[in-house]
Amino acid sequence: MKDSIIRVIKFIGLGFLEPLIRLINKEEPKKNIKEVFRKIVAPIASVFIFVGLWQLGSTALYNIEADYKIEATLKSQGEAEAQKVKECMESGDPSCQPNTLPSPAQVYASYLTLLKDHKTIAADKKAFKEKTFELNKKRVKQGKSIITYTGRPSFVDQIKTSLKTVFAGFLLALFIAVPIGIVIGLSSTLRGSINWVIQILKPVSPVVWLLLVFMIVKTLTKNSEGDSAFIISFISVGLCSMWATLVNTAMGVASVNTDYINVAKILRLRPMQKIFKVILPASLPLIFTGLRITLSVAWMVLIAIELLAQSPGLGSFVWEEFQNGAMDSNSKIIVAMFIIGMIGFALDRIMLFIQNLISFEKETI
Amino acid sequence: MTLITNNPKIERFPSNEVMLDLIDLKKVYPTPKGDYVVLENLNLQIKKEEFITIIGHSGCGKTTMLSMMAGLNEISGGKISVLGTSIKGPGPDRGVIFQAPSLMPWLTTMENVMLGVKKVYPHASKKQKEDICKYYLHKVGMESSFHKRASDISQGEQQRVGIARAFAIKPKVLLLDEPFGMLDSLTRGQLQDVLIDVWNKEKITAVMITHDVDEAIFLADRVVMMTSGPRAKIGDVLPIEFERPRTRKAILEHDDYYKYRKHLIDFLEH
């Protein structure tokens, strides 16, 4: 029972809970208390220290900004106005708070606002769907296009859009980089001859990729209706992020243990058999390392690309909030930052999970 | 009984008895400082169903010679022929057991053996192929782990599977490159028994490199001694005339055993 629980939590990446479970089972209490401290208490403490430092920092910045604001009012409008501003600030009225790094509490409040906002919009959407359901049925019968919800997307919708884009981009990278990687890994002539392309294109910034894709897609989609912003952003994400997979695949394929190759030679396996039975499985760990890097790069550049391409998603959410300049914009941006970070972390864990599932080498980094 | 054949190059056998024939074999590796000649004027005939062990100092070219026989290494001069036809590249008529077990770690023991069996018996039914795999895995004592991944078994067990894989493709010649070099002496003894047991039944020609003088004597019909490189060649050949099947105990108690041993050690130390 206990051992199977431990196996399961280790498998899903929650291995740090192991000493706690062992402790509950009264197993080696001395050692496990130490382990619990090392693996659970210490990390939690570090979270508190982080939040504390953040609180201190934001208070300090708040004070600088507040002092400056009062000083400025004093100079331009006199003492009475300055006193008013000061009182207004102290009363906590959001309309006269200085605009700076938000405190943890403000960020948490914004998080709740965003959730509430999402619930309202979701309810709105549902109501709209029910209302137009009958009408849409009729319109379909008449051959007209259906009426869709065109209201503002909620924060959660933005996350979904971003995930969709990054997934499409990742798949694109996978389908381009892995086959090419295998081919150039197999042939040293090919590797030598197109190495320059890879070396030159690899360091190109996401912004430039976006512009390049924009040039091409804009022309290609001239005559067709469709979501060209989505197409542009996912293709750019794919092109930016595929290099890690390409290079890793090529390296993995080129560096397969010579013993395995010799076995394949002695058995006179046909080229296809050799690739699928020997070379690919042997290079799978490196290919997966590449794919993990690709996914994290894809997620990282996605935000920048959405921001520039004006395609919906977390990136445009951040940008709009920044442009918006409302009272809680800054804290919403920080909320987005944490969400982006956590999703990135989760994506990496998922990749690691899949890798452990299908690969013969176990990796736990 | 003559222990020493004075000039091994002269010893020729009738051609219908010869399985492997190495004629004036030469191997040259080009280096920045000029060509490095590893082997030169190497002549050796290996009879059908014979078990040959090769000993010599490290770096003398034993492994080079073996991989040339396997077709994995190019021949710079001379030729190697199997049953009178010179070899061109590797093939399933010459099975190889490497020093590292070199099983595919992502496959099960069964699938590892199957990889070769599929190639050699393309028309057999799935059941027949599985039976062949099982037969050989059974022979090497791996009957309880057909479906274990190769990465999950010990190195000794992996080498057992390596032996099964090599025999299962029914090679004419089995080439072994220090197959037990990485194993502890207890496992090594067990695997020598497994190897000789399967070899006795299959009656194929075997050529094995070893560093271990006792192993060389215990397994071989003839022990081939190579001179130190560069330009290594066959230095001496020692026929081992113990009856088969042999047991380790009987051989250790045999009077000739120490003569053989002394002969080999004298060669290696001079």
From TrEMBL, chain A:
InterPro entries: MetI-like, MetI-like_sf. The keyword Magnesium does not apply. The keyword Flavoprotein does not apply. It is a multi-pass membrane protein. Residues 159-351 form the ABC transmembrane type-1 domain. It comes from the Bacteria. The chain crosses the membrane at residues 36-56, 165-184, 196-217, 229-257, 278-305, 333-354. It is found in: Cell membrane. Keywords: Cell membrane, Membrane, Transmembrane, Transmembrane helix, Transport. Its main location: membrane. Pfam families: BPD_transp_1 (PF00528). Belongs to the binding-protein-dependent transport system permease family. This is Nitrate/nitrite transport system permease protein.
Automatic annotation (TrEMBL), chain B:
This is Nitrate/nitrite transport system ATP-binding protein. It is a peripheral membrane protein. The keyword Membrane applies. GO terms for molecular function: ATP binding. SMART domains: AAA. It comes from Wenyingzhuangia heitensis. It comes from the Bacteria. InterPro entries: AAA+_ATPase, ABC_transporter-like_ATP-bd, ABC_transporter-like_CS, ABC_transporter_ATP-bind, NO3_transporter_ATP-bd-like, P-loop_NTPase. Pfam families: ABC_tran.
